[in-house]
TrEMBL record:
This is Peptide/nickel transport system ATP-binding protein. Residues 4-255 form the ABC transporter domain. The keyword Transport applies. Coiled coil: none annotated. One of its GO terms (molecular function) is ATP hydrolysis activity. It comes from the Bacteria. It comes from Kribbella voronezhensis. PANTHER family: D,D-DIPEPTIDE TRANSPORT ATP-BINDING PROTEIN DDPF-RELATED, TRANSPORT ATP-BINDING PROTEIN. GO terms for biological process: peptide transport; transmembrane transport. SUPFAM superfamilies: P-loop containing nucleoside triphosphate hydrolases. PROSITE patterns: ABC_TRANSPORTER_1, ABC_TRANSPORTER_2. Belongs to the ABC transporter superfamily. InterPro entries: AAA+_ATPase, ABC_transp_ATP-bind, ABC_transporter-like_ATP-bd, ABC_transporter-like_CS, Oligopep_ABC_C, P-loop_NTPase.
Amino acid sequence: MTLLRLHEVTKEFVTRGQGGLLAPKAAFTAVDQVSFEVSLGETLAIVGESGSGKSTTARIAARLLDPTRGTVEFEGQDITRATGKSLARFRNDVQVVFQDPFSSLNPRYTVERIVTAPLSYQGIAPPGGRRAFARELMERVGLNPDHSQRYPSQFSGGQAQRIGIARALAVNPKLVICDEAVSALDVSIQAQVIRLLLRLQRESGFSYIFIAHDLAVVRQIAQRVAVMNKGRIVELGTRDQIFDQPRDEYTKTLLAAVP
Ligand code: ADP
Ligand code: MG
């Protein structure tokens, strides 16, 4: 079943060239006619160099940013311009985990408050009470539940990323978008967080859009891979096809750079 569908999504940013206010405005195309689908339970990776448009695509897919053209569909509904209840439902079903856990976790909140916040915003009482629910979420992501009253700064980078993942899981999402979620972590910690992401998916059956510039990481987690270059998807295929029989010249160059 198709969960999410982007259809010919384009994002132009209007910028001014050198010369400050007097310079003419120019439109820069960050994402160029991008189309893909994500099925329920699968992991689609988006790979490409820095600046290729991955995060912009992710932000459009999560409706954190409006596309200039094109449509975003979720469970068969066009939600490109949705507002009100349907947008709220979508914002619940699609969660994002960002690269830098510390900048996406409120430093003045305890872990308990952070991971239960998505429910509080919706006015939903955490099942079993806030404390018990936070402890359960912490256990699910491999954090010590006795640390629920600590603050983000008291955790390591890998642990902080687990807090971000716990927060995403609090609302039972159907799709979790990981935008370079493990890129800033040490290799051994990366492997642990990837194992966690895989286990959570096995347990709950949601989908991932997994964005990374590191192909070795992508190989461990994705079923399908989209390769982006200069705002376009130049190739999209199964993991084995992309890694073993790349067709596009740019994909071949990317693969050649993997040690
Ligand atoms: P990636 O995540 O693949 O590194 P991004 O989606 O962040 O790429 O960026 C794609 C391009 O769009 C880059 O050239 C970036 O500088 C540009 N860009 C991203 N956001 C904005 C913005 N808000 N205004 C202007 N240009 C932007
Ligand atoms: Mg990015």
